[in-house]
Amino acid sequence: MQETDTSIELVLDGQPIRVSAHGSVAGALLEAGVAWLRSSPRAHGPRGAFCFMGVCQECAIVIDGRRQQACLVTPRAGMTIERGGVR
Amino acid sequence: MTFPQRFDLIVLGAGPAGGRAALTAAAAGLTVILIDEQSAAGGQVWRKPRAERVPARTDGQHGEGLRAALDASDVTLALGRRVWSVTEGFRVDSLGPEGSMSCVADHLIVATGAHERVIPFPGWTMPGVMGLAAATILLKSESRLPGKRVVVAGRGPLMAQVAAGILAKGGRVVAVVDQMRLTGWLGALPALATQPRLLAQGGGWMGRVLASRTPWLFNHRVVEARGADRVSEIVVTSASGDRRALSCDALVIGDGLVPGTEVPRLLSARMWFDRLHGGWIPELTADFETSVPGLFCVGDGAGIRGALQAGTSGELAALAVARQLGRKTEPARLARLRRAFARASCFSDAVAAMLSGQTADVARIGPDTIVCRCEDVSRSEIDAAMAEGIRDINQIKHVTRCGMGPCQGRMCGDTVQELVALGSRRSREEVGAWTGRPPLRPVPLGDLVGSFDYGDIPVPEPAPL
User: Fold this and answer.
1) pLDDT of residue B436
2) H or E stretch including A67?
C-alpha cells in the first residue's frame, strides 16, 4: 500500500482542519494540536485518546455520523468529526 | 447473516503467540482461522510500522516475517474484525467491515495479549496523558510524537524504549520519572543478562537517553497532572517527599501490564492469581490448555512473559491441538520448545517483576482521585460502598458503577480489586475478579443486526389447533 505524507482536510466540529493522512484519526488530531476529544459523561472532565489500541474507549467520538474509536479509524479527506457529542 | 463456518482451530489474536500458533497448526494440516481487531498481524509488540518513514528494526523484521509467513500460508486471515462473543463449543462471533461473521471449531487458542496498568493519580484523565504502550504505538506505527515536551514515567524497560524513540524522532523528553531505584535495575542485571541480545537492546535505549542528558529521576513518581483541556504541568515527588513541577504537553505513563483474560473468564475456565505474571490468569497444562477441554491460552494473555515466550507458547499449544486431532508431532521438537520456554523464564520473570502490580501504589490513591475513567468513580465512592458492608467485587460494581462503562473494567479492574482487597483486609484470591460478560467489546447494535426487511424475518407456521 502506498503511504504518503499528503496533508488532507477534515471537518472538525464544523471547522476545516489540516492533518497528515497516515495512521489514526486520534494520532493525526494529536499531531495537529488537538488533544481534547470529549467530556466524560458524569463529571464532564476533559478526555483524550489514552490507550491508542482500542481498549479504553476514551477516543470514541462521532466520525462520519457513527460512533467510532478515533484510534482505530484512518483519516480520509472530508471526514466529519464531532467531538464531545457522545454520552 | 451467513452460516457459521467450521474450522479445526480458531485463533484469537494475531500477535507473536497467536501468529505462531496459527502457522504451526496450518503447517500440521489443520484448517485455521486467525482473527484480530487490528488491520495487520503482529499484535502490539510487532505492530506494522508505517511504511517509508520507519527504518527497518529488529522487532519490525520479526513482524514482517510473521506477516509474510501468514500471507504465504493456508491460514484464513480475518483481520480488522472485532470479536464480541465467544461461547462454548466453540463459536466465535465477530464484526468487521463486511458485517458480522460466525465461525465454529472444537479447538480455540486465545492469544489476546495484555493491556496497560496505569495506577490512578489526580489528572490522569487529562488529554495529553496516555499509556506507555500508547506512546510506542504512536512512535512505531504512526511515526508521530506524543507531544512537543514529553515526560515519560512509570516502571520497566518500556520507559527506556519510549524515551529513546522520542529522542530518535527529534522530540524532546523533559524527564524520565522512574518509580524504580537504580539499585533495582542493577539487581535485575544478572537475570537480564541471560538474554544478551535483549539486554543490549534495553541498555542501548537507556544509554541513548542518558547520553542526551535527559534527566532520569530514579525513585520518583508522578503525583499530579495539571492543565485545562490538555496537560501543561505535572508534579513529581521523590521517595523522601521532595516535590517539583515539570512543564510538559504530554505525559506517557505505565505501571506494568495486565493479561487480557476476558475469554477464559467468559468460558468459566479455572483462574488463579499470579501477581508476578500480571494478576488473574488461567490454570494451564504444560500444553497451555485451560480447565475447559479444547480451550488454550498463550502469550501475554496467559501471564506476562513477553514476545520471546509468546511465540513458543503458541507453537506448543498448536502442536497439542494437532495431536488431539490425530496428527503426529515430533517428541524432539516438543522437548526443544519446552526447554526454550524454560530457559527464557529467567529473563522474562525479571521483567515481569518490574511490571507486576504494586499494592503500595494502589494504597496511595487519594480519596478524590477518579479510579474508573468511564464512569468517573472516585476512590472515596468505592471506600464508601465498602463502609456500607459491601465486599463482593461484582456488588461493588453494581453499586458504584465502576467497571460498568464502555471499557468494561479493563482500565480499572486490577486497581479496584486491589482497593477492595485493601479495604476489606482480604487477599486478591478471596476478592476475585469481575465476572466476564458478553459482548466482549462494545458493538453497535445496528451493525450486529444488519439491514433487513420484515419479509426476511422467518415466521414459523402457526401450530395447528
Assistant:
1) 82
2) strand A66-69
Q: Exposed, middle or buried: residue B157 (CB in 10 Å: 0-12, 13-18, 19+)?
A: buried
- Counting residues of chain B whose pLDDT is more than 90, the rounded percentage is 82
* Beta bridge mates, B259: B114
> B83 phi and psi, to 5 degrees?
-80, 125
Q: Do A52 and B131 touch (CB under 8 A)?
A: yes
Burial B402-419 (b: 16+ CB within 10 A, else e): bbbbbbbbbbbbbbbbbb
* B52/A3 CB distance under 8 A: yes
Does B388 score more than 90 pLDDT? Answer: yes
Domains of chain A: 10-79 (3.10.20)
pLDDT tens readout for residues B99-158 = 889 999 999 999 999 999 999 999 999 999 999 999 999 999 999 999 999 999 999 999
Measured CA to CA in angstroms, residue B340 lies from B23, B149, B313 at distances of: 19, 42, 10
Mean pLDDT of chain B: 92
Name residues 347-376 of chain B within 8 A of A (Cβ).
370, 373-376
Burial label, B437 (beta-carbon count in 10 A; 0-12, 13-18, 19+): exposed
Q: What is the pTM (predicted TM-score) of this model?
A: 0.92
pLDDT in tens, B50-105: 654 444 554 545 888 999 999 999 999 999 999 999 999 999 999 988 888 999 99
For residue A5, the model assigns a pLDDT of 67
Q: What are phi and psi of A65, to 5 degrees?
A: 85, -5
Closest in B50, B126, B370 to A23, CB measured: B50
For the beta carbon of residue A43, count every other beta carbon within 10 angstroms.
Answer: 12
Give the pLDDT confidence score for residue B439 in this predicted structure. 83
**Cis? peptide before B296, omega within 30° of 0:** no
Restricting to B residues 25-84, those with a Cβ less than 8 Å away from any Cβ of A are: 37-38, 44, 50-52
Closest by CA to B294, choosing from B316, B274, B273, B317, is: B317
